[in-house]
Design a protein that fits this description.
Elements: E1 2-8, E2 21-27, E3 30-35, E4 46-49, E5 54-57, E6 59-64, H1 73-77, H2 81-97, E7 100-105, H3 112-121, E8 129-132, E9 136-138, E10 151-153, H4 156-169, E11 175-178, H5 197-209, E12 214-218, H6 221-230, E13 234-237, H7 243-249, E14 256-258, H8 261-266, H9 277-299, H10 312-317, H11 321-328, H12 334-348, E15 366-369, E16 386-389, E17 392-393
Parallel strand pairs: 1-4, 6-7, 7-8, 9-10, 11-12, 12-13, 13-14
Antiparallel strand pairs: 1-2, 2-3, 5-15, 15-16, 16-17
Helix pairs in contact: 2-3, 4-5, 5-6, 6-7
Amino acid sequence: MVVLRNCRLVKELTEGYEGLYADVLLTEQYISEIQPTGYAFVGEYEELDLQGKTLLPGLFELHAHLYGFIYNPYELQAMSVGKITFGAYAFAKAYLDAGYTTVRDCGSSHNCVAAIRDAIRQGIIGGPRLISSGLIITPTETGNDTFRDLYYEADGPEEIRKACRTELQKGNDFIKLMVSGAFMNEGADPGIQITELDEVKAAVDAAKRKGTYVAAHCHGTEAIKTAIKAGVRTIEHGTYLDDEVIDMLKDRKDCFLIPTGAIGLYCLDESNQDVPAELLEASKKCAAIEIANINKAYEAGLRLGFGSDIDLQAFLKVPGYEFIARKEYYTFRDIDILLQATKYSAEIAGASDTLGTIKAGKLADLVVVAGNPDEDIYVMTKPMIHIFTNGKQYK
C-alpha cells in the first residue's frame, strides 16, 4: 500500500470527496480511500508527500499513430516490421513519460500496436494502456499510396465488412474508417466524402457484432453527417462541421467529436521542413475555418475527446502540444481542457467506470504536476513529477 500525502485535488476531476486537499491510499492497482490530510490509515504502507502538488487522473490520448515515430511516410514504408515495432514502442513510452496512461492508436502498420499492447498487459514490457485499431480501412481513393502500408483498401459493403472482420480477428480493439479525404494524402481532397452510407453502416454493424465501434476520419461536412447517421462512435478531426452537425451531436452519449489541434498547429509551421508546400498551403486555407467550427462546437457544450494526431518528433519537440493547441489554436478554458484530457476521454473510450477521475474504487492511473493546471494549463507543458499506472509508480 502507498499513501499519497497532501495532494491538491481538482474538484471537477474528483468524485466522492469534497475537499481541496487530501491523502489518497493506493492498494494494489486501485485507489482505495480518499481522506482528509493527516488521516491515519489502517495497516502498513509507504508514504509519498506531494507537498500540495496537484494530483490528476492519468491523461488520455485518443488519436495517436504510434507507428509514426518519424514523419516521413515513405521512409516508414521501407522499414522492417521490427524497426517499426520498436519505434512504435518508443512512442508509447514517450506518451507515458508525459503522463498519458491511456493511448488509443488510430492506425498503425503490421499490427504492431496490438502486439505492444499485449506485451504490456503480460508484464513483458512497461508502457501505457493501449487501445489498438490496426490498419485504417479506406475505399480506393486518391492519395492512398502515401500511406499504403497503413491502409486496408476495401470497396462496397461486403469488402468493408470483410476488412473490419479481418482487423478485429487480428485482436484489435476497434475499427478506424476513412469517410472523407485526408490533408496528408498527396493529391486528395479532404473536404469530400469518399465512403458511402451503406459502406459506413457495414463497418458499424461488423464492429457491433464484436462488441466494439468505429472511429471515423471526417473532415468534410457531408462525410461527418453520414458517419453520424451510420452510427459511428467518434468523429475524428471534424474540420468542416456546421450547425447541423452540432445539433446532431448535442447531448449524445453514443457519438463524440475528437478535434486534433496539435496537428493543425504543426502543419502551419513554415519552419517545419517535414510539411510539404501543398500541405502547408491547404492548412493555411482551412485553419480559420477549422478554428471557428471547433470553437463553436465547444461553446455549444459538446463533450470533446482529446487527440493530437502528431508524430513522435513533434511530440517531443513541443511538450504539451495538444494542451497548447487547445489554448492557443482553439480557445478553450483551462478546466475544460483538463476535463477533455481525462474525464471526457475516459467516457468516450468506454472506460469511465475505472478511469478518468480520482475516485475510490477506480484504477490508480494518476499523475502529479507542480502547479495548478485548472488555473494555468501551461503547467501541463512541464515534466510530470510522478506518474502511476495500475497503482505502480512509474516515475
